[in-house]
Every structure is written in C-alpha cells, then in structure tokens.
Write a structure and sequence with these properties.
heterodimer; A: about 500 residues; mainly alpha; two-stranded antiparallel ribbon; about 5% strand; B: about 475 residues; two-stranded antiparallel sheet; globular
Chain lengths: ~500, ~475
C-alpha cells in the first residue's frame, strides 16, 4: 500500500496536467483549485510517507534494495533494449527531499495565484516541473533518473521565457542551456558507466556492487561531478543562476533555487560519489579549492548587488557551496551536514523567494535602494523576509545552524590543510553573510518610506499560510534536528561505507 | 515450393501498382478527390500489411536470391510508408491553396504517384542483394525527388532548387557508380555475399577506394560533411511537403543504404572503417548545428537541423549490427513523427504567412494547442526527455558507446546543447516574442487538426512506452 502511494507522488502531478487539458482556459479558477488540491494532496502524501519511513527505520529492507536502505522498493522492467528498469525507492536521504519538494511546489502554486498570462499552461508547467523533481529524487535507475533530470529543462525555459520579468529570454536560455550542458556531461558518463562496469544494469543498487575500473573512474568522475555541480551552481558554473532566478517568476525561482539546485548536489552524492568512490577521494580535494569562490566570494558579490533576487541568488550560491564543503569533507558528519543543508536551504530559499515575490508584486521593484520603510505598511511580509534572512545567516534555532555546524565540524575533521583553511574561511564568511542580509533588511524595511508606498497592503491569507508553513519547517528542523539526522545517518551509512573502503589512488598509478 | 505469392512481396506489389492506379484513376475521372484518397488508402493498406508481416530472424530470398526481405527491410518499409503517407496528408493543403507566399500546386494525383515511386525506390534499397539492384533502388528513390522539388511550376525558387539538386545528385551518382565498379573489381562479383566473403578473406587498396567513393556518393544524399551544402538551398526552394519528404524519406533511404552496406558486404571491415564513420558523424553533426544557429527561415533551419540529425544517426553505425539497426530504425520512426509534426505546424502557419521565424510570433497567445505541438516537436528533435527524440538519441548513443567510442559520444552529447539553443529559438519565437502588428487568423482543417493531435500524442508517448523499441529489438534478436 505504502509502495503504491509512494509511486503516486510523481504520478499525481502528471495526472493533474492531463485532467486539466480538456478544461477551457477561461475557467482559470477551477483549474487553479484542481492544481492546489493536487499539490496539497501530494504534500499530505509525502508527509505521511516520511512518517512511514521514520516508523519503519530499523526494520530490514527488501533484499533487492540492499545495501541501500530503500523502502517502498519498486522494480518493473521498462525498456528491455537498454536494460532500463523503472526502479524507485525511498530512504532517509530522498524522502526528505521529496517532502521539501512537496512543500515548495504547494507554496509555488499558492503564490502564483495571480500570475499574468495563460494560467492553464503555467500551472501545467509547474506540475510537470514537480513531476521531474519528484522523479529525480525517487528514481534509483539511472536512465529513469536522467529522464526526470533533463525534463526540467523543458519546463524551465517555457516558464521563464513566457512568465518571467526583465531579460527573460536571456535568463531562460542561459539557465536552460547551462543546465543542459551539465546534463550532457552526465549522460556521456552514464554510457561509460554502463559499459565499463559490465553490470548490464542501470540500477544504482546493482552498479554499486561492482568495481568500476580505475582508469575509467579517473576521467568520468570529474565529468559527472561537474555535470551535477552545474545545477548546484558550483564555481565556475554558477553564472546561470543569478540571471535565471532574477528573470524567473516567483514560483519558478522558489522551485529552481529551493529544489532544483538540490538535484545536482543529490546526484553528486548519490550517483557520482557512491559509484566512483576511489576517484571521489582523489578529486574532491580539488573541488574544495573551487569552493573558495562559492563560499567566500559569493557573499561579497551579494553585498554589492541592489536587486533582491540577485542578492538571494548569490546567497544561494554561497549556501550551496557549503553543501559541497560537506560532501568534500568525506566524513559521516560532513555528509550528514551536507544532506541537512540541502533540506534546510530548500525551505530557506523558498521562503526568501516567496517573500521577495510578494513584496515585488506590491512595490513593482526589486531594487533595495528604491525601497525603504515598508515594514510600516507590510509588517507581515517584512518579518517573513527578516526571518528568512536570519535563518540564512545561520542563527541557532533555525535549520541553517544545525546544517552548517555539522558541515564545519565534519570538514574540519578532515586532515587536509586546504579543507581546513577553506572551512575557517567559510566560517568567517558568515560575517559577510550577516552584513549583506542586515544591510538589505535595513534598507528595505526601515528608514524613510517613499510616498508611493502609502497604499501598500499586507499579505492576504493565502500568502500568509505559505510564509507561516515555510517558517515552521525552518524552525522544526532547527529545534528538533535529531529525528531527521537519525534517518539521514542510516541512509548515508552505505554511501560512507563505500567511500571508506575505497583506497585513494595515486597519481599516475 | 507452392504457387502462392510469397507474403513478403505483397506490400511491395501493392505499392508498385499504386501509382498506376492513382494516375490512371485521374485520367478516367477528372476533377475529383478520388486519386488522392486512393493513394492514402493504398499507403495505409501497405502500412497495415507490413505490420502484419512476422519479423523473421532469417530472411526470405527471391528472384535468384537478388531480393531479400528481412526484418530490417520490413521495418524500413514501415518507416518509408509512414513518411510517404504523412507527406501526402501534408501536401493536400498545398494543393488546395497556396502557402508560404507561393501559388498553389496542381496535379495531386501525379504527385502522389511520384511519392509512391520514391518510396518504392527505398523498398528496393533495403531489399537488394547485389550492386545493380541496389543502385537501381537508390536512383529510383532519388529521381522522383528531383521532380517533386520542382513540382510548383509557378515558383522559380523551386526550379532553381531542383536544378541544383539534380546537378549535385548526378555527381553523387557518378561517385557511387565509380565506387561500385571498384567494389566489383575487388570482389569479382556484384552479389553482396560474394563481396562479403572477399572482404573477409582479405582487403586491398581497391576496397578502400571503393569505400571512400561510396561514402562520398552517399554523403551527398545523406547530407554528410562536406557534401551537405546543397541541402539548405534545396530545402528552402522546394515546396514544404517535399522538404518534409526530402528530410525523412530521402534521408531514411540514404541511411538504409549505409546500413545495408556496412552490415552487409562491408561487415568484415566495419572496424576498419569505423574511424571514417566516426569522423563523418562528428563533423557533420557539428557543422549542422553550427549552421542552424543563425537561420531565420524555417525550412532552411530544418535543413540544417536534419543535417545534424544525419550526424547523430551515423553515431549508431559504430555499434554491433542488431543494436545499430534497432537504434537507427527506432530513431527514424521518432524522427519521422517529430519532423512531420513540425512541418504540419509550419503548414498551418504558412497558409497566410511566410514560413519564417517571425511568422511564429505570438503563436502561444493566438493558439496555445498549436504552440504546444510546436514546442513538443522542437523539444523532441532537441532530444529532451520524456519526449520520443530523447529515447531515440539515447539508443543511437548507446549503440555508439557499446563499442567504446566514448569520445565521439561525449562530443555528440555536448553538441546537443548547441542544438537545444536553436530549437529554443523557434520555441522563443512562438512563445515569448510579441507579435508585430495584426496577426492574420490561423485556419486549420479537420485533417490538419487530427494529424497534429495524433503526431503530438505519438511524440509524447512513443518514447516513454517501451513497446516500439522492444518490438523492433525483438525482431533482430530472434
């Protein structure tokens, strides 16, 4: 029963799209209610299944799913020509990401209620995007994984180019093509992975049981890791994200920064590092050097920007850098921190972009120098934005603190000088983060208010619910991190076991 | 041996009789819709009959073993028939009224007959077992295409395109014949089996000269680098439905020619000619993609896009026979469907406007369904999942990678990003750009609506549902 429900998670958004096709576009209210209901239903489903995974923890899993701790394991032959199967399964790592996606999609649907343009198509695209993200997190088979992974490109471009603002075509193309470049690198290595491993299976479970030749790993790992890292905006592939987010409509920014960028980090951990642990040990120290840009320089760039979305985009870049720091630490604590950061940052940035979108709808500008004192008129949204800011700079009590402290502890535990130096720099850069967040909040919310903002109205009920739920999620993880961390630890254990067993290759050896 | 007509020949006979019936019908009954309907029904019948044929692991040899019908032949026949049928359906509008700023075309019955002849040429190519029949098939597939290109007599561009096409095509034919003569000189026989045995026994410079010239010759027809230059002009000048036929039927015939050659007489030396195929594939897809970047006319754009697609198809030729044939046929099916979908949409647009990127502006506001169909076609050609094109390309690359040509696969996959850019340009015109001035109204006939709907559904589901590829593969692995 639970297995069936789990498979429904990605199917429901897709079915919603098909249900809405015959409804004429003029009945926008009906279409929106259908989408909102479907989003809420999936959210409930994801919540229930997360609870089930928690309740089931400790019990043995399906033997076909071992060594991964996968619940709700489904394996159906799909394309026999390619030996591709439809394999999905949930463990602590991905069920939380699915839950995160459900929250963000639900929020995204609610905040786009008044979107201009063809609403029927817009909501269909959101649901397609949701399908693709759910699919990525759920699938264990690499062909299935890739199908979902690249599906996002299709929705993203249309949503940004048609419903965005500013240089929307430019931003949309930049985002789509850069992401497509990343997935091209992944696809190329997938073929190699299949033929070199000799496993005649695309299943992560099967592939993890064979040893992939070292000579192949050495060139394939960087290609695949960077391919995934593109969508998590690791330097030097971060350039798509500020322009993409800035031109995207609110819901798309939320989804892109909140969940889509996590797909890359998730892929790095789940596919690249898990299947090629030897090469991971060799290459990840070099990745740490790239992080100096993300973690240390990212906040400085955010400091200089005046557009709210650019500030948030660079803040995302720096936060995602921390995920990679956790991954590169190669310690259980670091990996746990990285996974926690994926979840925490999803809620955080979702809240950020949601409040920014709501403020933008009212002020019609995202330039912080043109705003001021709007706290007096829209206190609810102001507080929402401030909370997001505080969570972003890692205030204890919010999820960011838990995740970041784990990452720092984990990274510092690694006895490589470079990693330690970068860790110290990263800790110091929190100060910069504090500066830009406080500066932004101060300029925007306090001070003299331009006269044109006298008529601003505060958030309506629909918007309030979204903000409150996202804040609650941040607090929940921040105050009770234990139960998430337990589940994450169980799921990371097999990945770490493989990493620990791998011998570090010698250059030229 | 019984006296009954062998079942593998029946569809061929029907197709061969079809042009005579259609044209004869027009001679008897003037000014009626009957000939065109007869042609469509005939093609549907052939398609259905082909689907009823069992895919055999072995093959049926006829006419002193110069004619072989095997699983590859049957499946290729299906692709060619489907393409001809869709081409006729597409062409009807161009006979009913002018399009793309050009006057309407006349003589639909003769048009249908010519298309059927071209299709039959493709049938011969996939069934031939000796060089002469093979050459005959290729010419029979090509010469009707010259005629079709110049079909619109009132259009000077078309005549110019046809002249260009004939001149280039004749040179290509000469190259092929030259290659054939060397192949004959090498093996001492025109029969494929004899050539295969000779090649297996040992190679000689004669063989390599023959291979080189054969690839040059077919390079023209498949628009491989450096022989692709005629394609943009001819695609642009030809009437739209003929462009679609050129992009699908002509290309499918040419690739079938290569498949028959590489996995037939040249099978023993496949490994030696792999570098040649790899280089041609890589350069062709790169050049096609580069060329498509800056186009503003839709048919010119489709020409470059189809050059690039030819390059992608070539990648699959590097794999082992079953995998390669599965991938190519599967891809051709999907390519046919996606390509015709695009051309049907262009056909609706082109009724009152020119077929250019600017004519697409504002489409998403004017008719969302049409804009969705166009986006589906373009994303499929770009190879974005879950649309069919992705799975097609996946099979092609899978076949190429199976023999360890990772460098080429990486190159081809990265080129896909380039391709995505120009397909996005089309989608951008239709979805994001504001129209300039008043838009002329779009009118769709029921036939167009039905075709666009069916093809869209096909593109969306043919990839995800595994039946097509499984069936094709099952045929080869028997």
């Amino acid at each position: 029963m639970d297995t069936l429900l789990f498979n429904l998670i990605w199917l429901i958004p897709l079915l919603t799209v098909f249900v809405c096709i015959p409804i004429p576009g003029t009945k926008a209210k009906l279409i929106k209610s259908i989408h909102a209901t479907s989003g809420t239903f999936v959210l409930g489903l994801a919540g229930y299944l997360t609870y089930r995974v928690y309740a089931l923890s400790g019990t043995p899993v399906d033997e076909n799913a071992a060594p991964l701790m996968l619940r709700f394991f489904t394996d159906i032959p799909w394309i026999s020509t390619l030996n591709a199967h439809y394999i999905v399964g949930a463990d602590g790592l991905n069920i939380f990401l699915v839950l995160l996606t459900a929250v963000i999609v639900w929020g995204g649907i609610l905040v786009s209620w008044e979107i201009k343009g063809n609403q029927k198509v817009f909501f269909a695209l959101i649901q397609l995007l949701a399908t693709s993200v759910y699919g990525v997190f759920m699938s264990i088979d690499l062909v299935l994984f890739f199908v979902f992974y690249e599906m996002e490109a299709l929705c993203m471009y249309l949503m940004i180019a048609c419903y965005g603002s500013g240089r929307k075509d430019y931003g949309g193309k930049k985002l789509t093509l850069t992401l497509a470049f990343g997935s091209a690198m992944i696809l190329a290595t997938l073929f190699g992975l299949y033929f070199e491993s000799g496993a005649t299976s695309w299943s992560l479970v099967e592939l993890s049981k064979v040893n992939i030749p070292m000579s192949f790993q050495m060139w394939a790992f960087p290609l695949m890791f960077m391919g995934f890292a593109v969508s998590s905006s690791l330097f030097p592939f971060h350039f798509w994200s500020p322009d993409g987010h800035a031109s995207a409509p609110t819901a798309v920014s939320m989804l892109a920064a909140g969940v889509m960028m996590k797909m890359g980090a998730y892929g790095c951990l789940r596919v690249a590092m898990f299947l090629m642990p030897e090469a991971a040990k060799f290459w990840l120290p070099y990745v740490v050097a790239l992080l100096i840009f993300n973690v240390v320089l990212g906040p400085f760039i955010a400091l200089r920007h005046k557009d709210l979305k650019y500030i948030t985009a660079y803040s995302s870049i720096s936060h995602l850098g921390l995920i990679f720091l956790g991954l590169a630490a190669l310690t259980p604590v670091g990996l746990r921190g990285a996974s926690l950061q994926m979840i925490s940052h999803g809620f955080l940035t979702g809240l950020f972009f949601a409040t920014i979108g709501m403020i933008y709808e009212r002020t019609h500008t995202r330039d912080i120098t043109e705003m001021g004192g709007i706290m007096r008129k829209i206190p609810f949204l102001g507080v929402g934005f401030a909370i997001a800011g505080f969570a972003g700079l890692g205030l204890p009590g919010f999820s960011g603190f838990v995740a970041e402290s784990n990452i720092f502890i984990g990274a510092f535990a690694q006895d490589s000088t470079l990693t330690r130096v970068v860790t110290v720099l990263a800790i110091l850069s929190i100060t910069t983060t504090a500066v830009y967040i406080l500066q932004t909040a101060n300029r925007m919310l306090h001070g003299n208010m331009p006269a044109k903002y006298e008529t601003l109205t505060d958030a309506n009920l629909r918007e309030k619910i979204v903000v409150v739920v996202l804040v609650l999620c941040l607090l929940l993880i921040g105050i009770f991190p234990g139960w998430i961390a337990d589940l994450l630890d169980q799921s990371i254990a097999p990945i770490f076991a493989k990493l620990a067993a791998a011998s570090t290759p010698v250059i030229g050896g | 041996m019984s006296f009954s007509v062998p079942q593998f020949i029946i569809p061929d006979l029907i197709l061969l009789a079809l042009p005579f019936l259609v044209i004869g019908c027009r001679l008897v009954i003037r000014n009626s819709k009957l000939p065109w309907r007869l042609a469509c029904i005939g093609l549907i019948a052939v398609f259905v009959l082909l689907n009823l044929l069992p895919l055999v692991g072995g093959s049926g040899n006829y006419f002193i073993s110069n004619w072989r019908v095997d699983d590859f032949g049957i499946l290729m026949r299906e692709v060619l028939t489907l393409s001809a049928l869709l081409g006729l359906l597409l062409a009807k509008d161009y006979f009913d009224h002018g399009a793309d700023g050009k006057p309407q075309m006349n003589q639909i019955a003769e048009f249908a007959g010519t298309v059927a002849f071209a299709t039959f040429g493709g049938y011969i190519v996939v069934s031939a077992c000796d060089l002469l029949t093979f050459f005959l098939g290729l010419e029979m597939a090509t010469i009707p295409m010259y005629i079709l290109t110049a079909w619109n007599k009132k259009d000077q561009m078309g005549s110019e395109a046809a002249t260009k096409y004939i001149l280039m095509g004749s040179v290509a034919t000469a190259f092929e014949l030259f290659g054939f003569s060397y192949l004959y000189g090498f093996a001492g026989s025109i029969h494929f089996d004899a050539i295969q045995n000779a090649a297996a026994a040992g190679t000689s410079p004669l063989l390599w000269i023959a291979v080189l010239f054969l690839f040059c010759g077919i390079g023209f027809k498949l628009t491989l680098f450096p022989f692709y230059t005629w394609a943009p002009d001819v695609y642009e000048g030809a009437p739209s439905p003929v462009t679609a036929l050129l992009a699908v039927t002509s290309k499918a015939t040419a690739i079938a020619f290569l498949v028959v050659l590489v996995f037939g007489p040249l099978a023993p030396v496949q490994e030696q000619i792999a570098p040649l195929i790899a280089i041609l594939a890589g350069v062709t897809l790169f050049v096609g993609n580069l060329g498509a970047l800056k186009q503003s006319r839709l048919r010119r754009f489709m020409a470059y896009s189809s050059i690039a697609q030819a390059g992608y198809i070539m990648v699959a030729l590097l794999g082992p026979a079953e995998m390669s044939k599965t991938a190519i046929i599967y891809y051709l099916f999907l390519y046919t469907v996606a390509n015709y979908l695009a051309f049907f949409v262009f056909g609706v647009i082109g009724h009152r406007r020119e077929e250019s990127f600017d004519a697409l502006r504002g489409l998403s506001k004017q008719n969302v369904s049409l804009a969705v169909a166009l986006a589906v076609a373009m994303f499929s050609l770009a190879g974005i999942p879950p649309l069919a094109g992705f799975f097609g390309k996946f099979h092609l690359f899978f076949s190429g990678a199976s023999t360890g040509h990772y460098a080429l696969v990486v190159f081809a996959v990265l080129n896909n990003v380039l391709a995505l850019y120009y397909y996005l340009q089309v989608i951008k015109s239709a979805w994001a750009d504001e129209p300039e001035g008043e838009l002329t109204t779009l009118r769709m006939t029921k036939r167009q609506k039905l075709c666009i709907f069916l093809l869209t559904v096909g593109v969306i589901f043919m990839g995800i549902l595994p039946h097509l590829s499984d069936n094709i593969f099952a045929g080869f692995s028997l």
